[in-house]
Amino acid sequence: MSETELQTPIGVLSLKRFPIRAADRLRAWDAADELLINHLYQQPNLFGGKIRVLVFEDQFGAITCYLRKAAIEQGGSVSIDVMTDSLVSQHAIRQNLADNGVDDTHCTIQFVDNTLTPTKAYDLVVYKLPRNHGYFSDVMQRLRDCMTQSTNIVGGAMVKYLPKTVLSSLENTVGPTTTSLAAKKARLIFSDFNSSLKPANPYPTTYNIEEIGVELSNHSNVFSRDSLDIGTRLLLAVMPESDDPLTIVDLACGNGVIGVSAAQLNPNADLIFCDESNMAVASARVNVERCLPMRKTEFYHTDCLAGVAPNSVDLVLCNPPFHQQNAVSEHVGWQMFKESLQCLKSGGELWIVGNRHLGYHIKLKKLFGNATLVDSSNKFVVIKSVKR
Ligand SMILES: C[S@@+](CC[C@H](N)C(=O)[O-])C[C@H]1O[C@@H](n2cnc3c(N)ncnc32)[C@H](O)[C@@H]1O
């Protein structure tokens, strides 16, 4: 078997990670996916009639691709709602579905917004436990409206990412919960729906950002959803100001804090907010509509700066991510810097804040030919590069 071929009980699935990188040795599934697939295979009459399934945080699509293949093999019919926060994950699932054949007669698949609660009852809810347990709990609580006593609720997780607190939280939000024995360092999680529970959901949360005098709202999977990041704080203290009619991008915007600050300091600027997290873009939109009601703003749920025109931007502000979904990676930051160079007008500036050990200074100098240290703390640096 190659690194991209997953052997399932009903045949091989070809699965790639996204974004595709040369010499990427990581696989697009893990042992928890394998356990879930084997479990689903062993369910008698899974496709007895038309079944409605919600698949949550299926990172590269192993579960979704398996369910579609199983429906075809077993002559069943399945409608799958796929819920994921990440646009990159959505791209991966779509591409892996396409790579494993198309059959619309047995299976309909749609992507559903994770800030909304679907209005149907599911027969099966399958999930991969996300790293952010607050996000998991938020979605599980909202999905109660789509569960009944007969909903089959099963999740998969690597043991190292499955603390006992997740199980007790499931007991309180969904109902009685048990786990399988561990296999290949993964476990399955089973919950029975208890309709009499009344869990309270704290999301979206709000907190006040004294530095810019506004309160920001945060969906459960937004970076810094409970307090301001210390790197962001350093950038807010040295933000560029101008009365010119600039176009400013808050790249990797999270809740939009950097863009809101830029709008305050640049009263004639138009703002663009970009993030690949659906909950980030939704939060930024709510915050901007409340804090900047009269300003011209655009929101892009996008990978880095995809969709922003070349040579169209005066200023890009960014606190880059140093991981893509669960995997630690410097590639995303590098991609953001390269795309910033393309989108900036001549004379336009990229300002970034980052952990000093990441060496962004060297990368920016290589790309832009210049990188000026604007400010630093013991942990973070703010660097500015100008497009010549
Ligand atoms: C360090 S956080 C910064 C958030 C916000 N600007 C702040 O300072 O609080 C990085 C952000 O990058 C986003 N992100 C990760 N990968 C991305 C990608 N490929 N394209 C766009 N945004 C991405 C994450 O969703 C996250 O919101």
What does this structure look like?
This protein has 388 residues and is of the alpha/beta class. The protein folds into two domains: 187 residues, Vaccinia Virus protein VP39 (Rossmann fold, 3-Layer(aba) Sandwich); 182 residues, Rossmann fold (3-Layer(aba) Sandwich), CATH 3.40.50.150. Helix content is 28%, strand content 28%. It contains ten helices and 20 strands. The strands form five sheets. A seven-stranded mixed sheet has the order 5-4-3-6-7-9-8, with helices on both faces. A seven-stranded mixed sheet has the order 14-13-12-15-18-20-19, with helices on both faces. Strands 1-2 form a two-stranded antiparallel ribbon. Strand 4, helix 3 and strand 5 form a beta-alpha-beta unit. Helix 1 runs parallel beside helix 2, helix 4 runs parallel beside helix 5 and helix 9 runs parallel beside helix 10. The chain is globular. The N and C termini lie far apart (49 Å). The model has no long low-confidence stretch (mean pLDDT 95). S-adenosylmethionine binds next to helix 7 and strand 13.
